[in-house]
């Protein structure tokens, strides 16, 4: 009986240690009944104010190497980390005390961030534009896969403090938002990590590796003049290096990512969506233990997104950390969401729907704590005011406690909501008529005898595979592309607002405030006298904090630039909106605000997007581009259309 009691006490003590270090939450550790977690404990029961402030937060791990006694993640004698409690697996990645700021340290993107990434989990990283998601991802990529040949950013290099540790047995692959696309490499070579036709090039991170051996075997076996000796040597190298497994994997990924017919094409001849599929395929061929993805669904069509989701789901041993604003992807692929908010990481078990519920609970918890703290602060403030100056030395400890309480009573950074004012112009009775439109580029037929008469209130989603002519159709609507035959007649009252997926040309040295002022003054009927106040209002509405108003555009994140582009389009008060992939690089708050704006929009909306969640909310019917110039008008949502494709066997469920 005594032994059983000792065993139970040991288990209870271990559980308490896990809860205090925060590792129970990180590793998915299940708390035994009878022990309350931070989320279930009442506000008044908690004594640790620092823990209260971030109740559901992923708590910082203690030093991995220096303080082994105070952490559950320690190094064995051989340097390999022990297993995470409750998982039976060591961590895939450990971040400790990561801090990164800009504006001379006045604005923090990352503030003493610590996190343990458990293996086999599929984790989505979310947060507002400019909060530091891509910064964090780049730091992880630079540390874990330094040979990654990423695009060189013209901005200042990332300066940070803290540590990122990746176990030696963990292989890592990173796919950027806009991967490299060298013109001299074929798709087949790119899938093997070959980045230059010059085998000695420093760009080839896999030089002299199994991937080069596989490539050499392919060249020898397909040579116009077959060489028996060369083939024998290449085959022997494949036997000893494990090349056959790599070749099998490359062929499998090429098939699943719809790249078989493109293997001999150079990357320079591919569309953006095709290049993205190649980059993702190259990463998957490596079978990495940890896959880092920055906006993986950008430029992908509906079928490609489904294929990627299926592959990630099948790779049960692979750990995935991805930045994405595709809510359908987050819902279907991720089993955990981490949010970067005001320099701090918060964790939520489950998918995107669970994240929304968890975030609401966190805010309610913080509000309750703040209310309780303010009451205590009021009592302490009354006590402080009663103290005579001569007795202050006797109550120094209480004064220090007061100042600590005062600091904690400050509210979290305001959860400001992006507000878009719906002020579109009136539309006349005649809006836009397309009659018998045909267009062809060489052998590729974009449109074949297409006709449609647009009406006020039309909300149309343009869908179809990459390269079938969706963006070309948008260009014809706004006059950038003329048809080969047919007639396009816009109404006299039509004012176009065009959001281009390629972004807009921005003067990198121009200040944000000056850019917005320029756009306001470019609008018909604008007043020089009223421009300053309107500029201030727009910057506030689009969530640009005052400290960023005089910032040069070159220092903005990709998402902030997209928000500036959206501001530029909507400032012109259009009544015919053309949006080409508006969800790319845009944070979830901006998407929600844009959805609310479009729900009240009285003009015509034509949108190209592969974000099912977004398209379902803002459109009523679809123009389905089936290829060879065929366009069908589908009355229903994008989700309904996707289900039809599944039923017809055109897309794997």
Descriptive notes:
Helix 8 packs antiparallel against helix 9. Among the domains are: 124 residues, no CATH class; 88 residues, no CATH class; 216 residues, P-loop containing nucleotide triphosphate hydrolases (Rossmann fold), CATH 3.40.50. With 653 residues, the chain is of the alpha/beta class. Strand 17 and strand 18 form a beta hairpin. The two termini are 55 Å apart. It is built from 20 helices and 18 strands. The protein is 37% helix and 18% strand. The longest helix is centred in the middle third of the chain and has 35 residues. The protein has a six-stranded mixed β-sheet, sandwiched between helices.
- What is the C-alpha radius of gyration, as a whole number of Å? 28 Å
CATH fold title of the domain at 432-647: Rossmann fold
| Global mean pLDDT | 76
**In angstroms, what separates the terminal alpha carbons?**
55 Å
* Name of the top-level CATH class of the domain at 432-647: Alpha Beta
Work out the helix count: 20
Q: Helical amount among residues, as a percent range?
A: 25-40%
Largest sheet: 6 strands, mixed
Overall, the morphology is: globular
Spans with pLDDT under 50 lasting ≥5 residues?
A: 6-81, 151-155, 199-208
- CATH H-tier superfamily of the domain at 432-647: P-loop containing nucleotide triphosphate hydrolases
